[in-house]
């Protein structure tokens, strides 16, 4: 028999959905029923999300200065609030947990006004706009990189780390084995829906500058936008490369586990998964992120020596080619980076986050939770 329902709210991108998914597995193991409220973008993740039910509630972001567009957004938010109130009345969750993104605003606002225990989880080193708007209303804030000391909400912040999916925990069991001088070298490249375009241009050019013996060792997994598929595929065919190119990989954790080097953006989930699995990486923070959160996330892992961080403006194909050449000819350096990354990983983040959810659902205070050590 279920202990009750926990309602998770997450925006429809992997950065928001994946930590929610990891928590959902933990909560189900502890006997809770899990419901997810999100937007239509999350449908591609929904097949694997361990929720008893998935709900879509209207929402909108207020990013325009146009009075008409602002009015439309406010109307959508109000509609979403009404839908969220009805949902909460029907399912009676013990707690509502937000993971960021504008679709979390209506259900969290509705829950706080209805007296339902609430908390948010912030994946990044810099709090996003949706979470910032909700932070003053919720009982607790769990942070992937947020400090418990300093800041406006330090008294109710617990640094749990970012929960990672079971597939990541499974990939972390695979030890890092360097690629020898004549062995295949697995390079994994991905950038999310917004960040992949740059890699689609830079990576094939950089690879074309490598000497043929090095080029023949490369085995590439590259995530690209659908509109860039043909360009990237034509380049890999021309270079006679062994490459797996797709807009989305459902087994990305396994592919990272098999990687000798990862080239990617530095979203919070990405940084956390790299650390738990323990793989060396070149991080290129997405330069147009609103709060420069990716740069802050990258800096947190770079401080351990597990990754190298390079600004996009500085990463020319020529420089990337030089980096790849060095990585493929210095396996000992990559082995050391892998070990450093793994030391920074927090594989128990999902369990600690679930502990906090149970405490908030039971209406324990955050001070009591911190005092108990969990």
UniProtKB/TrEMBL annotation:
Localization per record: Cell membrane
SUPFAM superfamilies: UDP-Glycosyltransferase/glycogen phosphorylase
Residues annotated for UDP-N-acetyl-alpha-D-glucosamine binding in this entry: 13-15, 124, 165, 193, 294
Superkingdom, natural source: Bacteria
Keyword field contains Endoplasmic reticulum: no
Chief location: membrane
Keyword hit for Isomerase: no
Record function comment: Cell wall formation. Catalyzes the transfer of a GlcNAc subunit on undecaprenyl-pyrophosphoryl-MurNAc-pentapeptide (lipid intermediate I) to form undecaprenyl-pyrophosphoryl-MurNAc-(pentapeptide)GlcNAc (lipid intermediate II).
Name of the protein in its database record: UDP-N-acetylglucosamine--N-acetylmuramyl-(pentapeptide) pyrophosphoryl-undecaprenol N-acetylglucosamine transferase
Organism: Rhizobium calliandrae
Gene name of the record: murG
